[in-house]
């Protein structure tokens, strides 16, 4: 996954900087979590397939093709990783709420009267 580059205006306000930095931190958080999760999943899946292949060699009458036998692996993996995914989702939602709060603050800060970049129209 390639990382996004966030725009950094020359006159960035404190609220805008906090908003941008939290968005960058969220991106790093997602990248690290899913990189580790995908590596863990692949490692455990390969172990499961190797164990199934070994069972096929040692006890042919109990052998089931690893492609057919992956459903129990997926179920067990999801059950085992439930708490980890729950913690990830809780952290993600807290982070998203904080990002929304900071984004609104940055938006309002940028549009204050007299501030460069204000979107207020001038009446004649």
UniProtKB/TrEMBL annotation:
<dbReference type="Pfam" id="PF10231">
    <property type="entry name" value="COA8"/>
</dbReference>
<protein>
    <submittedName>
        <fullName>Apoptogenic protein 1, mitochondrial</fullName>
    </submittedName>
</protein>
<dbReference type="GO" id="GO:0097193">
    <property type="term" value="P:intrinsic apoptotic signaling pathway"/>
</dbReference>
<keyword id="KW-0999">Mitochondrion inner membrane</keyword>
<keyword id="KW-0496">Mitochondrion</keyword>
<keyword id="KW-0809">Transit peptide</keyword>
<dbReference type="InterPro" id="IPR018796">
    <property type="entry name" value="COA8"/>
</dbReference>
<comment type="similarity">
    <text>Belongs to the COA8 family.</text>
</comment>
<dbReference type="GO" id="GO:0005743">
    <property type="term" value="C:mitochondrial inner membrane"/>
</dbReference>
<keyword id="KW-0472">Membrane</keyword>
């Amino acid at each position: 996954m390639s990382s996004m580059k966030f725009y950094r205006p020359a006159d960035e306000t404190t609220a805008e900087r906090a908003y941008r930095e939290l968005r960058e931190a969220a991106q790093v958080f997602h990248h690290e979590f899913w990189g580790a999760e995908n590596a863990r999943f692949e490692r455990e899946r390969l172990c499961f397939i190797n164990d199934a292949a070994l069972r096929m060699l040692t006890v042919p009458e109990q052998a089931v093709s690893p492609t057919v036998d992956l459903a129990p692996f997926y179920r067990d993996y999801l059950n085992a990783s439930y708490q980890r995914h729950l913690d990830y989702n809780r952290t993600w939602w807290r982070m998203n709420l904080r990002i929304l709060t900071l984004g609104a603050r940055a938006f309002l800060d940028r549009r204050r009267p007299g501030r460069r970049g204000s979107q207020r129209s001038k009446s004649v």
